[in-house]
């Protein structure tokens, strides 16, 4: 029988959902089928979007197994198609997208502490940046906690170098974790909460892609493969497994993975890697109450009344009594959670606890509206309402059929309540790993909500406990009823206008800050911490009568010293010597609103950089902040709408630059393509940042032939060689040296062209360790009187990080025709 040592490791994913769950009769029937099963499956891969949503949907909805996806990272190192957010903020978005996906396909979601540091070409490089033992520990922890019989790897452990290094590493580590989870000497500190666990089978989810072609796969020996037909149609859902999977995958909007579902027979293949090849699932095997439990489950399924789900409640309560006789364990707790959810859903039970404030600071007193209703004839009694350990109300109040119970709860946030911000993002994280000290937190997508209301219900002679988060609720005239998490925020949000700023030594720089209170404040002060020899005026600024939500803008003047230096400027409020806090809001319609709380810093990059292009047009792509940082070069930057571009309007610019992946996402570029080439011919510069070879809106967007490839240089500290040291773009108006390629972030560049016309001039060469030199990261072609530039250099990462050399290179490129 499955066992856990401690119930503390069990948790309900429902607490992470903000909108109250409303199960229909089909959902309840599906839940009954899952209740009769004890098999569990863990799918393992490296990133958000790596998971095979078809298999997850199949196991969760057709086989009714408990199914989970373990993504080693949160996808922090990728690109973003829906905004300019990168790194930590992108990881937050992708975490929420995964949670939304699992709501659709029926799986659960977990992570390790591994940080997605960017593209990696082999597992050796990956494990040099990740802490292998910490990642293994987290994988073992999830295996011991979920106790899956079946583990499935998305990737092959035997083929390093053929795919992303994170991919191969995820499979290699999974093989180790498969054995270590059963070893009591491995990570023994976990055994305070869980027991060792030996999964029965480990598979590799192979496909024709891993064989090189469909023809090679068709001819291959499949004796070690298990074939699964995904083409199950679920009448209660009105969808096939593939259609459910497509809806799930379409949640990955930041990666542009909108998918169309398919129907009919479709095969997936699992290659047996290790374990017990003869293992067959046997539900409730080894449980003393097995026969009784299975009989009740089968009766519930056979006798379920779709028009009156409450008719199942007596047998569900009988089953609950059987569950309670089982030894105390995490397995029992999980099954009881699922059973209680079905009992309440069968009663048409509804509960919400809402407030009309989206954000509050610790210590705030507030009112929350509680609504409870029993929409069945089953007798329910509302026994108690409490918050945390404090009893609010003891009622013993009968919930009459279809008569709501409502109450206003007077609540207060604890003064030491942590802010709502990702628990894994902190000052101790590295490029390769997040730091999470508490064992019980490891693996969780996010921590529990700020305030949870506990309700106990009496039903016959049993008691059901319900945990409900306090959430923000509003009604939008267009979108209707909206639920969002209650966000605990600092009393003051202090934000620099720019988080990275290019400045010149000895020249006064105006620094702008916004101060936004989350509650009324009579007075405070704001000041800046800077190096001792820097002049900051005024010394501080006093603020009075601050009103909730009203922004006050303040200005300081800073005189930087010492050129080619980077300094962190810190905002401080009140008498505290610690950094003020800044709140970054992430608000998208397809995920719940998030926020990141971090110290209010501004990186000042002290450098003297010239640019000859005095007016630059920027055509947006998939989302980056390059245009904002270009303005720091003291040049005029105008964001252009291609629909409004004319030959006359273009003539006023010295250079045009297109955003990342512009030719993948901006269809309006097709209409002005000829105008842009004429612009170059007239003596101007067009700089095209990287695009991918998939889904180009215009196939031939270059003046001379060029084929986009998949090559990239991922080692940010790789040597950069000057092919022609006398090249204009390396010398004017700024002299570039090897030092300008130090301190780059995450990568040099990506999607370098694989073929290009001889009319393009190569300028730089670079390579990852052990690879041949790549020369197409920067290609410059004289065209007419001007210059066309195709650039795979990742300016979109470097400029926000304040990389001086990236500023210099970009300034030179945009000035080349001047």
From TrEMBL:
Domain of life: Bacteria
Keyword line: Signal
InterPro entries the UniProt entry points to: Class_I_gatase-like, GlcNAc_PI_deacetylase-related, LmbE-like_dom_sf
Signal peptide: 1-17
Keyword presence, Signal: yes
GO MF annotation, one: hydrolase activity, acting on carbon-nitrogen (but not peptide) bonds, in linear amides
A family per Pfam: PIG-L
Name of the protein in question: LmbE family protein
Species assigned in the record: Flavobacterium aurantiibacter
